[in-house]
C-alpha cells in the first residue's frame, strides 16, 4: 500500500516540474535591460506623442485659411492681401503637416514594436520636419517683405526660429545613427 504523505518522485512532483518549466522558459530571456525601450529612448518616444498633438493643432488652425473667402483674399491678385507666395506656402505647409502627422503615427507604432527600420525612418522624419520648418519660416518671411532681400530672409529672428526647431534633430539624428542601445533595441524585422 502506498503512503499518501510520501513525496512523489521528482518528475511527478508538480512543484519541481513547474520550476523546471519556468527555468527552461527564463533561460532564453535576457536578464539585462538590453532590447527594452528605456533610458534616453523615452525622450524621443515622448517627443513623437507631443509632436502629434502639435501637428494636429497646427492642421486645425490652418483649416480656416482654406475656406473659399480666406483663400481668395490671400491668393487672388485683385485682393489687397494678395501675395504670390501665399498659395505655395499654405499648400506646402498643410501637406507637410499631414505627411508628418501620418509618419509620426507610423513611427510610434514602429517604435513600440522595436522595428529595425525605425532608426532610418525617424532620421528621415526629423530631417523632413526641419526642411518643412525652414521652408515655412522663409516663405512667411518672403510674404512679409516688399521685395526679396537675402539679408532680411536670414534675419536673426528667422535663424533663431529655425535653430530652435532644429535642436531636436541635431540631438536625436546622431543618437539614432550611432547609439549602441538603438542598435540593440530596434531588432525586430
Q: Would you write up a description of this structure?
A:
It is a single chain. With 189 residues, the protein is mainly α. The protein has one domain (37-185). It is built from 8 helices and no strands. The protein has helices at residues 14-26, 42-62, 68-75, 86-112, 118-144, 150-153, 156-178, 180-185. The longest helix is centred in the middle third of the chain and has 27 residues, at 86-112. The protein is elongated and about 90 Å long. Mean pLDDT is 84; it is low at 29-33.
Number of strands: 0
Given as residue ranges, the uncertain stretches (5+ residues, pLDDT < 50) are 29-33
Q: Which percent bin holds the helix content?
A: 55-70%
Overall average residue pLDDT:
84
Instruction: Report how far the terminal alpha carbons are from each other.
Output: 59 Å
Summarize the structure.
The protein is mainly alpha-helical and 189 residues long.
Please tag this protein with its features.
189 residues; 8 helices; elongated; single chain; mainly alpha
